[in-house]
């Protein structure tokens, strides 16, 4: 018989990592249901949303800006942005001062689909997190602490 496996936690429901993984899978499943009809994946939605947030403050949003805003791998962001460009949801133009960078912009079609997606996702999130009730602000603060503590790893 193989060596007995030792666990720090006595049961899966005592492991924060296990529970976070389960919540994440269920949350992603809910998002997939609302994003599929819009021809968007969860990752595409996240990058479009990051672009929209950044564009509110800066006209010259780059791929690196989007990767940083979304805590995403730069190579993955590059591939997904190519797909979004093929779908005509974004455009990429030469940067005025940085020849290595491209300025990423939402197209009119991209803005329309993103607005539909945002409405659907925000409603799905309100429903999904409703079990937390009036503790949502505290939950969000806890998640922000986890992000801040771990984002540079």
Automatic annotation (TrEMBL):
Top-level taxon of origin: Bacteria
Keywords, alphabetical: DNA-binding, Transcription, Transcription regulation
InterPro entries per the UniProt record, alphabetical: HTH_MarR-typ (IPR000835), MarR/SlyA-like (IPR039422), WH-like_DNA-bd_sf (IPR036388), WH_DNA-bd_sf (IPR036390)
Domain HTH marR-type: 1-152
Alphabetized Pfam families for the sequence: MarR (PF01047)
Gene3D superfamilies associated with the record: Winged helix-like DNA-binding domain superfamily/Winged helix DNA-binding domain
Record bears the keyword Transport: no
PANTHER family xref list: TRANSCRIPTIONAL REGULATOR SLYA, TRANSCRIPTIONAL REGULATOR, MARR FAMILY
Protein's name according to its UniProt entry: HTH marR-type domain-containing protein
Organism: Sphingobacterium thermophilum
């Amino acid at each position: 018989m193989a060596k007995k496996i030792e666990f720090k936690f006595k049961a899966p429901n005592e492991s924060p990592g296990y529970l976070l993984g389960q919540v994440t899978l269920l949350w992603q499943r809910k998002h997939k249901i609302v994003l599929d009809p819009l021809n968007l994946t969860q990752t595409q939605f996240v990058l479009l949303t990051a672009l929209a947030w950044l564009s509110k403050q800066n006209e010259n949003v780059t791929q690196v800006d989007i990767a940083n805003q979304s805590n995403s791998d730069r190579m993955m962001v590059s591939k997904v942005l190519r797909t979004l460009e093929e779908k005509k949801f974004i455009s990429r133009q030469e940067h005025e001062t940085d020849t290595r960078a491209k300025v990423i912009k939402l197209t009119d079609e991209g803005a329309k689909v993103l607005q539909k997606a945002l409405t659907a996702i925000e409603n799905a999130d309100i429903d999904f997190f409703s079990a937390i009730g009036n503790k949502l602000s505290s939950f969000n603060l806890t998640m922000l602490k986890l992000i801040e503590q771990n984002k540079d790893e």
